[in-house]
Model the fold of this input.
Amino acid sequence: MNTSDNRGNRRIGILASFALFASFAAVACSGSNPTPRIVYWTDSPAPATATPAAKSTPTPTPTETATPTPSPTLSPSPGPTLIVSSVLVTSSASNGRWTMTFHKPVVSGIPSATAATINAAINVKVNALIHGFNGSSLPIPASGDRPSTFDGNFTVALASPTLLSLQLTVDQYITGAAHPSHLAASVNFAVASGSAIALPDLFTNTPGALSVLSLRSRTLLVTKLGASEAATINGGTTAVLTNFDEAWAFTTGGLELTFQEYSVGPYADGSPNIVIAWSDLAANIRRDGPAGEFLP
Done:
């Protein structure tokens, strides 16, 4: 056999060996499937699942700055975080008699049905305050006077895993008046159900609790406003529900009460507020009620 034949045979042998090796490699890699799917090798499953897992618990967005910090004296909840933000409501009369703004609280971060129940109750309260202003015929501004104005706002007295207390304030001016006037109101809720809480819901004995509220508020208001206002204070703090249920709120330190202008003092005293310690009310508090968690 000549040299060229030997070279040809070697070339054929090498190619045959390479083909056989490639065939074994393909079988080893793919088993019964002759064409390996390299997508399984190039995909990296770990990063695809790691990022969503880190975001499984929603956090409040930075823009919702009105969210209060839950009281450190209450146990933290592993559930949803209650968020209280604000939406601006504006309106004005077509004839220029009045303008209205209200920074209305809006609740989110909890189950949507519960948030909807709370927000609906807030809307009812806010609309009632607004209607008290523009629901009647307001005077036409005299030359040089400004139109009637209504400005509403809110503060968060308490936002915990169990309770939400919102204090509402209104500054209003009726054109032609000597000075503006102010109103105080509140709304209080059980966070789990979204149900509104009325002041008597706190007590086992409402008349007994009102007696305590009357006595303690008189003492605290005289200290705050002065003994010269004692007669007016006594008239505005008799032991009847309507003296205390318009603007009250939960706080960790006690029951906060805000009194309307003129109810316990002159206009200069504004809308004074006081806090009556839970310990003073303990004998009349329902332990299984909304304020029961504040008792030792």
In short: The longest helix spans residues 3-30. The chain has seven helices and eight strands.
